[in-house]
Amino acid sequence: MGALLILLLGFSVSKAKAQYQAGTVYQYYLLGTKAGDVQSNAKDGKILHMGSLGSGGVSGTFSYDDIVNSAGVGSDDDKTKNSDEAKEFSSIMATYSTFHYFSNRVEGFSSILPYIGRALSAIILLPEALVLDIMATVVPLVISLIAKLNVIRYLASMLTNFGITSDLTKALGITKEQFQTGVNAFLSFAITMIVITLAMMFKPGGRIDQRNSSKLKGRLFSIVAIPIILGIGAQFIQDVMNLTSASSNSSSAFSRYLVDDRSWAYNFNFAPNGNDDKDGNIHGNSSSYVDLHFNPYTPEGEKRIKQINENSSLAQKIGGKYDFSNSSLAIAYVMSDSFSAQDYINYKGTQASENLYGQTDGSLRGGTFGSYYQYALDQQNDLGDISKSYNPSGGVNANGDVTGSYQSAIGDYAKDNKLTVNPSIAWRDRFIYGVKTSGDNLDKYYGAKPSLEQMQNGVGTHNGSAFSDQSMYLILSTMFGETGGKYYIDAPARGVMQAKASFDSNRSTYYVVSMVGNPLFTMFGMIAKPLVQIIALIACLIAVLIMGLLDMNLRPLVAWFKGMTLGDIEYSYALLVYSIGIGGTVISMTVMPDVFVKVVDYIPQVISLSLESAGVSMQTPQSSLAFHGLGLIFESVIGIAMGVLFWKSEKFRSTLISLYTFCWSWARVTGENLERQASSAGQRISRDQKTMNAKREQFWSKARDKFTPEPNRFPNIPYDPEGGGGDGFGAPEEQVPLGVREIAKNGVVERSMNTLYDLDESDDEKVKDGSIRLQNDLEDLEKNPTKDNFNDVLESLSDLQQKVNQSDDENIDNDSNSQLERTREELFDLAEQYGFKVDGLTNSVNEPESSPSPEFNEGPNTVKMTEFKEIPKSSPSSGGGYQAPPQEPVIHNHIVYENTEVKNLATAFGNISNNEQIEKALSQLDKANDHKEVQHGFLGLQDAVDNLELSEKKEIDVEKVSKAIDDILKSKK
Question: What's residue 428's pLDDT?
């Protein structure tokens, strides 16, 4: 009988040579070369078949060398080819098992420690996974709101035929026809403005008004350009959305180190390359079957893990985005979920196996590997026929042999060649050896040898290097290691073996999720990468809140509205800038989280490359894991440090957030400047007369603010509205005025702004841009008088002077340059008051060599404290009011004012007119020949009054001064 068994075995192997490949090596080894061991478990000379009484299966151990050696039969060419295929199979299993791309859950007491370890990891993994999934869901949603619910796309959908769509159309409920009705009204207004501008462009004598000519060009341009700009901007935002939709900023950070083995097995039969039928290029070296290139901590390993998890049911993509994949992987891992060979082979016979596991859309191109559901349906009329041999994929196999286990137990499947069971069950038991679990002929099935049909079954290889269904069933019944493995081909326990414990330590099931590498190093990596990603996403969300979705819609809408109605060309430019800013913001918010993660993730590679360049090389899997795992420790330290800095450091947090907001910040500032350029010329029509009236009112408004404080203006000083100050205005005697430097600074800024107003009306764009830039710098100086802000103002001032000198614009006043020079001198004086050292040669200010005198040792917003002499109280008999001291005859330092109204104003000021600044201002008013000079005189007078001490201000007769000013204004008309 033994000779007959060997003869049959040799026949089977010789017939199978043509089908021998890496994907079927294991089934040939166990069912062919090792068939005698599988069929029998010799005890005291008696052969016991797997399904016989008292058997619960058969187990054994093997080495990869044994598999390779058993393949070296036949001709020299066959020996070489078969040995290479066996080596490839051994390298695949040794590499993936050693680096834990898949891992077994053993039964019995030895399973307790791994279970506890996985459960304890939940303390770190689950909270981290939940936070990351929440942020990865919210942030892309917010980014999509910026892009989709954007007014630029809405306007483009309403005003152009570019095919742009907007979600705002449904949200607002305004149809395109309704919207265009309103736009037509704006367009009518714009045309009217064009006609008016055209009429105003021509001056008497045939001259052309350059200002109105420029406005006409801008309005004509705007009517044509604004719809085009809207279309371009909307298309840009649409392209950005398409570009970023496939970004992995919401991808599973956990899928870097957690592998979904169930999906890998169910979808692709443990395909060596992950998700296709290529061979995976896995080859051991002379000392080991393990390929160190696929260490999971290396770039090659990372790429392979990504391919394996590409179609994971746990890290499943819905509409291109992940759906709580981190939490799904973490839960499956910590719960120690598992699947068995029996689970696998039964699933392959269902209709669901034709699609990706956990998905029903059938979107996978080329389909899954190894589903036999359709084969069973197509062959249901042949599966009951044991007179012929059939191919598992269909058709008669003339060189095959049906003799074996299925033929022996045919009574459990068919009667008169007609199936009596489900076609999937019949196909499974006919072509897959070892899966039969029930039936009257169970002993006969396992008492016979495997058939040639089962040994040659290539279904599942997908015409490539994936493993066949038969090999996969045997692989999932085996625990692989670095040098070999232990197989346990299960069969239903019969007789006395039914009392055997169900957690036999020999039994093997595979974990649904496996953590690659060494758990110690991998946990460091799983802390670092998700933590960095969480920080990046939180910073992104804060940036969105800072920028504001409303602001990103209002600014473009206002620019469009002004462009359509006012027609200035600058509004068209501003609209384009806002479009670029929004698109750039979407890009930065989508890309930056990935950039942060990749930068931190690159740290281990830098460490490895630096050591490798020094000649360090690893030769064993263990040393390779330690070598590359060291970088994960440094990566986790940096990740934790980033988390601490983000929480504790305002500067670090602001810097991180600014990386997301810089595009919109640039667009907002640039757009504001453009809109200011457009509006500046129209703001000051008939400016001289308006300025005179405005400045007069401003003077007395500020003067009364100085004389009559509002309640609680000085919260530390009690305020009595009924008096207490005795000055007629209810001001407390202890009232503290503004600091000298603050008053001087405000005056300088205001006078400088006044000088620049006329330059804003210039037709020279360079002069206009320079004026706006200087105004912005002056505003910064007013808020914060630092050395840098002083230097920025001086630099902008020099630049503007140069542009004024080079300009040919006849509208620029000849006196503009001298006014700008006076502004420079005032800035120098102001800088010295703030304790800075002025350098006229370099046109700059510097820090003083020594500390400023105590007089100026106050901050930019410090209120200067001044001592005041006590003003005598009135006697009870005087009526309770304050009695001003008797005024002496007014002496004006022998200055004779030619203008009677100015002379009356000097008299109204009384002794205060002898103040140097007041005297200078009065002289300017006395010599004024036009409205502009009168304006400058009043500005000087206002500053002079601001600089008076409180006791001096109280001496002013407000009614007399006000009347004198009215007389001057009337006389200068």
Answer: 93
Structure confidence at residue 960 (pLDDT): 80
pLDDT at 513: 95
Instruction: Enumerate residue ranges in the chain where pLDDT < 50.
Output: 1-18, 34-55, 248-250, 320, 493-505, 681-700, 702-738, 850-892, 894
* Burial of residue 969 (number of CB atoms within 10 Å: 0-12, 13-18, 19+): middle
Cα 559 to the chain's mean position, in Å? 28
Smallest Cα–Cα separation from 124: which of 595, 522, 517?
A: 522
CB contact burial 825-843 (16+ within 10 A = b; e otherwise): ebbbebbebbbbebeeeee
Tokens 């207004």 sit at which residue? Answer: 189
Q: Which residues contact 338 (CB under 8 A, 6 or more apart)?
A: 105, 509, 510, 511, 512
Of 675, 677, 669, nearest to 761 by C-alpha is 677
Angle in degrees, CA 906, 910, 916, rounded to 5: 65
- DSSP assigned state of 396: B
What's the pLDDT at 959?
76
Residue 453 is encoded by which pair of tokens? 């049909």
Helix (H, G, I), strand (E, B) or coil at 107: coil
Cα(121)–Cα(973) distance, rounded to whole angstroms?
Answer: 87
Q: What is the dihedral of CA 34, 40, 44, 46, to 10 degrees?
A: -130
The pair of three-digit structure tokens given for residue 80, joined into one six-digit string: 């070489």
Neighbours of 622 (CB within 10 A): 13
What's the angle, vertex CA 422, arms to CA 418 and CA 426, rounded to 5? 70
**Which residues 6+ apart lie within 8 Å of 717 measured at CB?**
732, 734, 735, 736
Q: Which among 442, 449, 607, 584 has a CA at the least distance from the CA of 521?
A: 607
Residue 466 DSSP symbol = S
Comparing CA positions, the residue from 340, 407, 419 lying closest to residue 376 is: 419
Cβ contacts of 164 within 8 Å, gap of 6 or more: 153, 156, 157, 231, 234, 235, 238
CA–CA dist 515, 333 (Å, integer): 8
By C-alpha distance, which of 921, 118, 146, 925 is closest to 590? 146
Identify the CA nearest to 959 among candidates 887, 905, 901. Answer: 905
pLDDT score recorded for residue 181? 67
Nearest Cα neighbor of 839 from 790, 778, 900 is 790
275, 310 in Cβ contact below 8 A?
yes
Angle between helices 549-565 and 569-601 (to 10 degrees): 160
Instruction: Report whether 360 contacts 160 (CB < 8 A).
Output: no
The 3-state DSSP class for residue 490 equals strand
Q: Which residues contact 576 (CB under 8 A, 6 or more apart)?
A: 229, 232, 233
Q: Is the pTM of this model over 0.85?
A: no
The per-residue pLDDT for 75 is: 67
Helix or strand (DSSP H, E) at 779: helix 765-783
58 beta partners: 489
Distance of CA 805 to CAs 745, 770, 801, 816, 838, Å?
27, 12, 6, 10, 25
pLDDT of residue 292: 92
In DSSP notation, 881-927 reads S--PPPPPPP--TT---SSHHHHHHHHHHGGGGGSHHHHHHHHHHHH
Task: At 446, list the tokens.
Answer: 């396992």
Q: Quick one: which of 402, 400, 422, 401 has its CA closest to 413?
A: 422
What letter would DSSP give residue 322?
A: E
| Residue 963: CA count within 13 A, CB half-sphere | 7
CA distances from 573 to 188, 234, 662, 677 (A): 22, 15, 19, 11
Tokens of 896: 């004779």
